[in-house]
Amino acid sequence: MEKLDRLKTMERKLNQYIDEHGHLLQQNQELQRRVSETEKKNEELTTKIGTLKETVKKIQQSNAKCQMDVKQLSKFFGEHSYSFTENSQKMNETTKLDSDGLLSISTSNPIHKRIATVAPADQVAFYAYLSASTAANLPSKHILVFDHVVLNKGQGYHQDDGIFIVPSHGVYVFAWTVGVQYHGWTPLEIVVNGVVFGSTFVNGGTDDWDFSTGIVVVEIHTGDHVYIRMAETGRELVHSNWGGRTSFSGWKLF
Q1: What's the 3-state SS for the chain?
Q2: Residue range 42-52, pLDDT digits in tens
């Protein structure tokens, strides 16, 4: 009887051990599953870190390129920009009244490339004229500087050098009128970035004065330079006074 009780006790303990072993096996399997998930997440994180490193590298390279571009732009602006005061001084140096009270403009008036002033698309228009007649026999390629500005919506026209710098892309209309006295003639052309888009010729004849007007419609882009210049060397002066003005105007259609 006593042996039987001992066997039962041992059997009961054995069953407990078996249950505990089964429970430990389940815990071990759960731990293995969690370890596997952790390793998988670790691999994903490693991949993401590698991708982030590549992205950071590309950003750094792009940033370095941007810094180089900024330096080049700063250098460009430093070399090509100049103040309105300097332009006014140059205009004063090159524009004088002669003994007859006529406007004498120097034949050396180089074009300076500048940045266009951005204006609302529907507010671009200008009108300017010569405040007095020019000196006689202006040379070929001489740019007319219309120094008296009546209207300048968008601030595109520059009275210091006679150049209209396009504030915004679009289709524009440009018109110019030129007057000559008797025995004089003036061949003019309108130029966009060095390319001729239109021209006029006026001849005063032997005993009368004459005026001529030209008009063009052209599609141009922001920053383009538009101006009026002598197509050939003229004869006598370009006329402009209260009796008739030599003028330049333009406006944006759309």
Answers
A1: CHHHHHHHHHHHHHHHHHHHHHHHHHHHHHHHHHHHHHHHHHHHHHHHHHHHHHHHHHHHHHHHHHHHHHHHHHHHHHHHCCCHHHHHHHHHHHEEECCCCCEEECCCCCCCCCCCCCCCCCCCEEEEECCCCCCECCCCCCECCCCEEEEEECCCEECCCCEEECCCCEEEEEEEEEEECCCCEEEEEEEECCEEEEEEEEECCCCCCEEEEEEEEEEECCCCEEEEEECCCCECEEECECCECCEEEEEECC
A2: 888 888 888 88
